[in-house]
Amino acid sequence: MTSEADVLFYKNFVALDKTNSTEEALQKQYNYTADNYFHAKLEYDLLDEIRKDPLFERKSPLVKALIKSQYAKRTEFLLFNAEGANLADKWEYQKRLREINPQKEQVLASTEPTTVEEKCNTAANEFLNGSGRYNLFRLSYVFSRNTLRALLSYLAQVVSTLYRYVNIAILEIPTLTFNLMSVLLFAAQLLVDGIEIFRHKFLPTETEKTYENRATLEFWKRYTRIINALWWATFNLITNFPYLFSIAPGIADWILTGVLFFDVLFLLVILKIELGFLDKNQQWLAKQTREEIQKVSLEDLEREITQAKSYLSENEKNELSKINEEQMRTAFLEMYEPLAEKNLCHKAADTAKLCLFIAATLLFIASLALVLSVASPITAAIGFFACVIAVSMILSGNNFAAFVSARTAKILEQEKSDKSCVGIRQKAENQKLTEFYKSIAEHIIMPMLIVGLFTINWPAALAVLLTYIIVKNQSYINNFINDKFGMQNGPNKKGGYSELQNKETTDNNNASMAYTHCH
After folding, report:
1. Which of 475, 255, 511, 291 shows the shortest CA–CA distance to 372?
2. What is the residue range of 474's domain?
3. Structure pTM?
C-alpha cells in the first residue's frame, strides 16, 4: 500500500467533536494529526505488551514509572481521538486508565451507544468483525460432517448393522443452510460496506466535510474485505448452487478448487502490505535513538519525569529527587529500546501467521484435489479430514503468532547473554506452544465430536454444542448479565467475545482464509 493510502487508512480516526471543550484541550495538548494518532496507537500497543512482560519488574523504578506514564498518556489520547474505534475499544481505553492510575480522576468518554447512528455503527462493526470467524466455524462443521459421512458410509458397507446405531441421513439436513450462509455472509459484508461508503460520502459529519475524496478514503479502509467478499460471494453461489447456472456438480467442485488459489495470491498481497506497515513502524521507532532523545529540551524532560513520578512510591520519589539530566535521558532511552524489540516480535509473529494461512490454503487445495481425483470413501474421509486440520490451523493463527512472538523475544534475549532472562523467555515460549497445540486439538476434536453425536443422539449433540458455546463465551455472557443488571458497565473483551471483536486491521490481515468457503 502506498504512503498516501496509509494516511487514508488512518484518516478516519482523526475526526473530533470540536464542540467538546475537553477534546479541544486535548487536541491542542497533543498537536493532533493523523500521524500522531498512528504513532500513539503503535506505542500504546507496544507499551501495553512491555507493561505485561514478565521482565517488566526487573527494570529500574524510574523506567517503570516512565512506561506507565507514557502508556497512560497515549491511552488518554486514543480515548478522546478514537471516533473510528468501536465502543468496546473506548471501554478498553477507559478500563486501562482506571487500572494504571485508580487514584486519579479521569475525564471519560461515553461508551454507550446513544444515537441511532452509533447503535447502527456498533452493530455493523460487530457483524463485520465476527463474520469471518462465523464462516470458519461453518467450514469446520461442514468438513467434519463430510469426513464422518464418508467414513460412516464406508463402514456401513463393511458392518451392515451400523445403520441401527447411527443416522447418516441426519447429516444432510443442514446442507441448504450451510450453502446459503456461504453466500449470504459475504453478501451481507458487501451490503454493510456499501452502506458505510454511501453514508460517509453523502451524509458526512461536520469534520468529515473537510476531507477530500471521502469515497476513496472509505474504499481504501475496506478494499481487502470488499474484494474478498465479492470474489467468494460470486463463486460460492456458482459452486454451491450449480444447477442455477447449468453447471455439473463435478465441474463446480473443480472450479472451487481452482479459485482457492485466489486466497494464496491474496494472502501474499496482504503479507506484503503487513510487512510494509511493520517496516515503517521499525523505521519510526529507530528514530527514538540517543541522538533524538538528546534533542529533547530539558524543560520537556523534567515535565515528563514529574508526571512519571506520580507512579512511584514516596521512598522512590525521595531517591530520585536529585536525578540529573543525563539520567533522565538514559531512562527515556531504556524505555524506547524495548519498543523496537517488541515491534520485531510483531513482525515475526504476523509474518508467521500469514505463512500459516498460506500453508492451510495449500492444504485445502491439495486435499480437495485428492478427493475429486480419487473416487473412494476412504480417500474422501482422509481428504476432508485434512480440510478440518486446515481450518483448525486458521482458527489457531493467533496462538501460533503468540508462540512465534515469544520465540523471537527469547532469541533477542539470548543476544544479551542474560541466562536468567533467557530462562523466563523459554518458559513463555513453551507455554505459548502448548496453547497452540491445545487450540489445534480443540478445533479438530470438538466439531468431529458434535457432528458425530448428531448421528447417534441429536438431543445430546445439541446439549454438548450449547454447553461448548456457553463455556467459550463465559466472559461475554457474564459481562452482558452484569451490564443489564447494573453491576458492571462495558464489555470485557477477554475470552470468547474478544475472538469476535477483532479490529478492522486484524480483520484485513485475515481477510483471505478467514472468509473462504468449501462445499
Report:
1. 255
2. 3-515
3. 0.78
Residue type, 131: S
Instruction: Measure the CA–CA gap between 417 and 398, rounded to whole angstroms.
Output: 29
The pair phi, psi for residue 241, each rounded to 5°, is: -130, 60
* Cα–Cα dist 273/465, whole Å: 38
CA distances from 428 to 268, 339, 344, 407, 509 (A): 30, 19, 17, 8, 25
Spatial separation of the C-alpha atoms in residues 146 and 52, rounded to whole Å: 43
Q: What is the pLDDT of residues 372-420, one digit of tens each?
A: 888 788 899 999 999 999 999 999 999 999 999 999 999 988 887 677 8
Q: Are 364 and 518 in contact (CB under 8 A)?
A: yes
Q: Are 317 and 71 in contact (CB under 8 A)?
A: no
pLDDT > 70: percent of the chain: 73
Q: Cα-flanking dihedrals φ and ψ of residue 118, to 5°? A: -65, -40
Mean pLDDT comparison of 26-35, 288-297, 338-347, 493-502, highest-scoring range: 338-347
pLDDT in tens, 139-158: 889 999 999 888 888 887 77
Q: Say how many domains are in the chain.
A: 1
What residues have CB less than 8 Å from 145, skipping those under 6 apart?
Answer: 171, 174, 451
What pLDDT score does 289 carry?
Answer: 64
> What grid cell was written down for 23?
477534546
Query: In whole angstroms, what is the distance from residue 493 CA to residue 501 CA?
Result: 7
Question: How far apart are alpha carbons 240 and 114 in whole angstroms?
Answer: 41
DSSP per-residue codes, 443-490: HHHHHHHHHHHHHH-HHHHHHHHHHHHHHHTHHHHHHHHHHHTTSS-S
Other beta carbons within 10 Å of 290: 12
> Which residue is listed with cell 461448548?
468
